[in-house]
Specification:
CATH superfamily: Ferritin, core subunit, four-helix bundle
Number of helices: 5
Number of domains: 1
CATH class: Mainly Alpha
Shape: elongated
CATH architecture: Up-down Bundle
Structural class: mainly alpha
Radius of gyration: 16 Å
Distance between the termini: 55 Å
CATH topology: Ferritin
Order of helices and strands: HHHHH
Helix content: over 70%
Number of strands: 0
């Protein structure tokens, strides 16, 4: 089915915005993970990077099924700046706590993009996929907040 109707263009815009934020998340989680000192947290971030890549692949497959062959999303300018900022913080001696705060900012953006996408009129199977992915993104954000808060109290 080729993209042609306004409904299909809306689907394309919604999925591409989510794909962009997933690209940011994939790269950001990997970048931050490389700088974390806590080995458990490092593994978590690297696993999350792979999860974001898988989510992105699922959405790109959906766009292909709807007739869009070339999906070359590269993330957002904001995501690029956030990753650069995280790298700078790490180089300046920012610890795990500082890097977690940076990751939380990225997760908040991802949550916003998913909400915006789900506010659109999307086919049920795609909506269900996005809801499942969104649930994971929300859980990841909760995990990061919990980790940060537990370190503050310690």
């Amino acid at each position: 089915m080729a993209i042609g109707s306004s409904k299909n263009r809306e689907l394309e815009r919604a999925l591409k915005s989510v794909i962009n934020v997933l690209e940011d998340g994939q790269k950001g989680m990997a970048t931050i993970g490389e700088h974390l000192k806590d080995p458990t947290l490092r593994r978590y971030f690297l696993a999350e990077s792979l999860t974001r890549a898988n989510f992105r692949g699922e959405l790109e497959d959906e766009l292909h099924r709807h007739g869009i062959r070339d999906v070359h999303e590269t993330g957002t300018v904001q995501g690029t700046l956030t990753r650069a900022w995280a790298g700078l913080k790490a180089q300046l001696g920012g610890g795990d706590h500082t890097l977690i705060e940076t990751a939380e900012q990225g997760e908040e953006e991802a949550q916003k993009i998913y909400k915006d996408a789900l506010d659109r009129d999307l086919p049920l199977p795609i909506r269900q996929m996005l809801v499942g992915q969104q649930s994971h993104i929300l859980t990841a954000g909760d995990y990061l907040r919990s980790y940060r808060d537990s370190r503050k109290a310690a």
